Sequence to fold (228 residues):
Amino acid sequence: MKKQHFTPELFTFFRELRKNNNRDWFMTNKTRYESLVRDPMLDFISDFGVFLRKISPHFVADPRPSGGSMFRVYRDTRFSNDKSPYKLQAAARFRHVLGKEIHAPGFYLHLEPGAVFAGAGVWHPDTPTLTKIRDAIVGDPGRWKRAVSMRTKGRGLVLSGESLKRPPRGYAPDHPLIEDLKRKDFVTITRFTQAQASADDFLTRYVSACRDMAPFTRFITEAAGLAW
Fold:
């Protein structure tokens, strides 16, 4: 599907917002935000939903402007020393239909000057979910290796996020997959350039990345006890 959703002006807007992160500037430029960021992202979410349902019918692409897949541009500054009111990126998450919290398995899109990427997996899972994932790796290491291998691409997924410094309690320190068992996050990302994000085939690229990450996401999802 060839259709330009995002333009270079989206990144220009956020570069300018970085220099003018205040309410007066944002309100003056709110129509630019809506036309360059909000509306294109909602359109992208709607179009991606068709492909997401083919990857898994249990993940949600919700194009509502409030309460849907798109993250709000407004920052929660209540517990932060940084009182800048606005986020400097556009982002969307496509979570599992039963996952109400941010640490539920899902797919992710991030658009920021100098940082464009697709993501998948689970970030900061609670202890019971983390234990289930670790137990699933121990219980079926072959499937785990296949899930992160990306055999059709000739390379493996790069996992990111935080890890423990020591092996988690209850798991053999000499386990062949101990570095994976030490993970506190199970996340992988695929990076893009701003030019790729602004091209008319970006949706195709993003869908391809999500398909590549699907075996990994499926492993995490089913390990957490959720339907794929």
About this structure: The beta strands are 90-95, 106-112, 115-122, 159-160, 186-192.
